[in-house]
Amino acid sequence: MTKADIGLIGLAVMGENLAKNIESRGFSIAVYNREPQKVEAFVQKNSGKNFIGTSSLQELVSRLKAPRKIMMMIRAGSPVDQVIDQLIPLLSPGDIIIDGGNSHFPDTIRRTAYVESKGLLYIGTGVSGGEEGALKGPSIMPGGSVAAWPQVKPIFQAIAAKVQGDVPCCNWVGADGAGHYVKMVHNGIEYGDMQLICEAYFLMKEYLGMHADEMHEVFAAWNTGVLDSYLIEITRDILAYKDIDGSPIVEKILDTAGQKGTGKWTSVAALDEGVPLTLISEAVYARCISAIKEERVHASTILTGPTGKFTGDRAAFIEDIKQALFASKIISYAQGYALLGAAAKTYGWELDFGGIAMLWRGGCIIRSTFLSDIKQAFDENPGLENLMLAPFFTKALAQAQDGWRRVCAAAMLGGIPVPAFTSALAYYDSYRAAQLPANLLQAQRDYFGAHTYERVDAPRGQFFHTNWTGEGGDTAATVYLV
Predict the structure, then answer these.
(1) 220 versus 163: which is more confidently predicted?
(2) What is the pLDDT of residues 113-152, one digit of tens each?
(3) Confidence band (pLDDT; 50, 70, 90) for 464?
């Protein structure tokens, strides 16, 4: 009986395209779906190729070479746990279960320990690039049982996107939930990038009064320089796309955005780590406020604000928007990498920060030329505290900040909401400030809650309490710092 190199569970769009990708690279693949008709239709549609259709998990397992490798491309959450529990009794020691969905990293940490306790191996891997990436070459971010990596490496690196001389956008990330954590941060940065681009578009449309065709030309030009990226490229194409009546279809799309939760997970993880992920969090909130469309429409008839249009040098202001977009993009990645650095310490992961940039260099949604500069920054200084402190980015921010500030100021005066641009600038100014007003905040906390404070004229770690009213006494609360 012919046995396959790998098995795949789930034949929705991503699973189907990933299966085709695997087979196209010379591997045989057994497929299973809980709806048997999907398996039959898929195999018939791809007759003559190295697909083996199976009608049960038992049959799927029986048609795989040892050690068996089974990849789940199913909905995150309880379905993953259910399939794992169904697979475990069917597998042998050393067999590998792979979760290729967008699972939350704590679930992957838990599942890795659970599956390993049964004598099996587990991989939780981020797969980015959408349906096109799954078919032609995604970015793949695997983590989990270290012993599993040599077994899946030839397949994963064969199907991944390739850059710079056929280098695969896939390498081992780290133990247990590291792969899904990196994918989560990737998605958070994706949220930020998309919101920044939307704010640039909105400034050109609402403040400069530009038509979609004019904006198409701007984004086409931007895609040939430092902003060259997949998201700029598709924005260029979207702005040029016409509806059947010849008008820009983008203007006929309702302005309410959805989300699948990975951006929110990134923001919550940042709060857990005490990392100021302000730009990405604002991008999540921007989607939330877009969703209350009816409230906004009602509020627009009551609340007032400036309605003036731009009257200066439009070409110069477009260049300022470009600088604001570039500078804010740097901030988004700086915050994302700060979160990865904090998580690496918390969970004991040995993350290769420059290598992660290369995983994102091709195949995924945030792919851009920009990532090569991040790789170089960490190659030159593996212990880099913050991406903004790398010479390339320090210089880029210095050069961009005048235009960035002009854009934020103009947007505020013009009543144009740009939460990602402005939060990015606030983060930059806060990070470069040797003094912040938290001294007053600590005094307030000590006044009402006896939470204590440190002094500038005493060693760090030595805490003091003031009896502000004369009635509070000398008893202080337990020190609690985030």
Answers:
(1) 220
(2) 999 999 999 999 999 988 888 999 999 999 999 999 999 9
(3) very high
DSSP SS3 for 308: coil
Cβ neighbours for 458, distance < 8 A, ≥ 6 positions apart:
464
Report whether the peptide linkage leading into residue 67 is cis, meaning its omega lies within 30 degrees of zero.
yes
Angstrom distance (rounded) from CA 333 to CA 189: 7
**Catalytic status, residue 294:** no
Where are the alpha helices (H) located in 3-54, listed in sequence order?
13-24, 36-45
Instruction: Return the DSSP state at 50.
Output: S
Rounded CA separation 378/353 (Å): 7
386: nearest Cα among 344, 325, 330, 460: 330
Q: Name the active-site residue from 190, 199, 273, 282.
A: 190
Judged against a pLDDT cut of 60, whether residue 481 lies above it is answered with no
Per-residue pLDDT band at 44 (split at 50, 70, 90): very high
**How many alpha carbons lie under 13 Å from residue 440 in its C-beta half-sphere?**
3
What pLDDT is recorded for position 362?
87
3-state secondary structure of 307: coil
The answer to whether 323 and 400 have CB atoms below 8 angstroms apart is: yes
* Residue at token pair 């040098």: 313
Q: Which of 183, 205, 322, 375 is catalytic?
A: 183
- The residue among 211, 176, 221 whose CA lies nearest residue 347 is 176
What is the per-residue DSSP string for 113-132?
Answer: HHHHHTT-EEEEEEEESHHH
- Which residue in this structure is represented by tokens 């300022």? 320
Q: Is 183 an annotated catalytic residue?
A: yes
Asked if residue 54 lies in contact with residue 30, where contact means CB atoms within 8 angstroms, the answer is yes
Task: Write out the DSSP string of 429-455.
Answer: HHHT-S--THHHHHHHHHHHH---B--
- CA–CA distance, 31 with 8 (Å, rounded to integer): 5
Banded model confidence at residue 478, pLDDT cuts 50, 70, 90: low
Query: In 130-259, which ranges are E strands?
Result: 139-144, 162-163, 167-168, 174-175
From residue 188, alpha-carbon distances to 118, 223, 259, 328, 386 in Å are: 33, 22, 11, 14, 17
The pLDDT score that the predictor gives to residue 401 is: 96
d(CA 61, CA 91): 7
In angstroms, the Cα distances linking 8 to 30, 95, 136, 359, 402 are 6, 14, 17, 23, 52
Q: Are 19 and 11 in contact (CB under 8 A)?
A: yes
Q: Which two tokens stand for residue 150?
A: 């040599």
477 pLDDT exceeds 70? no
